[in-house]
């Protein structure tokens, strides 16, 4: 059942976190990340070579201004939060483990390149396969997360297995990163050991996660503002809590810590802070403004005041 699968997944995440940064997270990441890239390439190549898939590639990569609206921009900004793990605490946590002589700007550039490349690869894996399987029906793309299952129906057995293995690895690496940020916060702020922090976060994870996994089963009738439990938690974290956290971080960095403190940190691994002016403008004005727009738009859409 979904509950058992979730419990096994949570236990696997907590075991890796319990092992520590070097013995757990680093070892798993060194193996999983290259495998993710290789699987992405294999599945994307298979997908775009299916009969009728090129229409899907065209639909994905060629801009169509008729479908463009302000809410398209808002949705893209929301996806950016999720994709780059912004305002989740992950970047701060893993950043604190970096050696002082590593270039922050160089690392940022690598994240930009790889995140964009993997996002394009994900599109090439799913959209052409859906087009090929549905006979070129663009409406089939409106299925949301269930596109993953719809897509696998159009893939061969082996490729389908590899696809879900990729999804599992991607979910596990994300779960590890999110759990580590919470565990390290309890360690740093409350002075707890890794065992105690992992146990407490594990209990919270199992409690809230069980509600989500049961939300499409025994608790399917329970709805909050018209959403099932999983959808509500997703809305609450992605569309409400993350933009609020982003605004708070922007204010903390620009008004309390100061951009000069950030520059000192960047210069530990660089001769100069090349993006200082851009960073200054973004952190002071653009980022809080856009995070506020995402927050307002998402909440308004959830209550039916506007349509995405």
Please tell me about this protein's structure.
The chain has 308 residues and is an all-alpha fold. Strands 1-2 form a two-stranded antiparallel ribbon. A hairpin with a 2-residue loop joins strand 1 and strand 2. Helix 8 crosses helix 9 and helix 9 packs across helix 10.
Essential attributes:
308 residues, 2 strands, mainly alpha, two-stranded antiparallel sheet, 76% helix
Secondary structure: number of strands: 2
Structural class: mainly alpha
In spatial order, strands of the major sheet run 1-2
Rg over CA atoms: 21 Å
Q: Segments where pLDDT lies below 50 for 5+ residues?
A: none
The global form is globular
Major β-sheet profile: 2 strands, antiparallel
Number of helices: 12
* Gap between N and C termini: 33 Å
Estimate the strand proportion.
Answer: under 5%
Helix content: over 70%
The helix/strand order is HHHHHHHHHEEHHH
Question: What is the topological layout?
Answer:
Layout: H1 2-18, H2 21-48, H3 53-61, H4 70-84, H5 90-96, H6 104-134, H7 147-153, H8 157-190, H9 194-214, E1 223-224, E2 227-228, H10 229-257, H11 259-266, H12 276-302
Antiparallel strand pairs: 1-2
């Amino acid at each position: 059942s979904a509950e058992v699968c979730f419990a096994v997944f949570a236990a696997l995440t907590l075991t890796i976190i319990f092992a520590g940064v070097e013995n757990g997270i680093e070892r798993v990441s060194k193996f999983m990340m290259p495998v993710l890239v290789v699987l992405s390439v294999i599945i994307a190549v298979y997908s775009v070579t299916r009969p009728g898939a090129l229409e899907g590639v065209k639909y994905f990569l060629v801009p169509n201004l008729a479908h463009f609206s302000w809410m398209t921009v808002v949705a893209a900004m929301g996806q950016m939060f999720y994709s780059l793990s912004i305002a989740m605490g992950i970047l701060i946590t893993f950043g604190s483990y970096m050696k002082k002589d590593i270039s922050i700007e160089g690392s940022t550039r690598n994240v930009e390149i790889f995140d964009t490349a993997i996002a394009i690869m994900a599109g090439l894996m799913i959209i052409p396969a859906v087009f090929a399987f549905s006979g070129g029906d663009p409406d089939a793309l409106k299925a949301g997360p269930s596109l993953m299952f719809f897509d696998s129906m159009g893939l061969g057995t082996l490729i389908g297995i590899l696809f879900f293995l990729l999804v599992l690895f991607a979910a596990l690496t994300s779960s590890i990163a999110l759990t580590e940020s919470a565990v390290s916060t309890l360690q740093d702020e409350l002075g707890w050991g890794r065992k105690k922090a992992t146990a407490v976060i594990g209990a919270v994870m199992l409690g809230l996660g069980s509600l989500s996994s049961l939300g499409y089963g025994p608790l399917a009738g329970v709805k909050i503002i018209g959403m099932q439990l999983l959808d509500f938690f997703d809305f609450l974290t992605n569309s409400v809590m993350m933009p609020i956290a982003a605004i708070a971080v922007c204010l903390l960095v620009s008004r309390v810590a100061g951009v000069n403190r950030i520059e000192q940190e960047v210069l530990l691994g660089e001769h100069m802070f090349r993006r200082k002016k851009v960073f200054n403008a973004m952190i002071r004005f653009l980022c809080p403004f856009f995070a506020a727009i995402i927050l307002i738009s998402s909440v308004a859409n959830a209550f039916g005041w506007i349509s995405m």
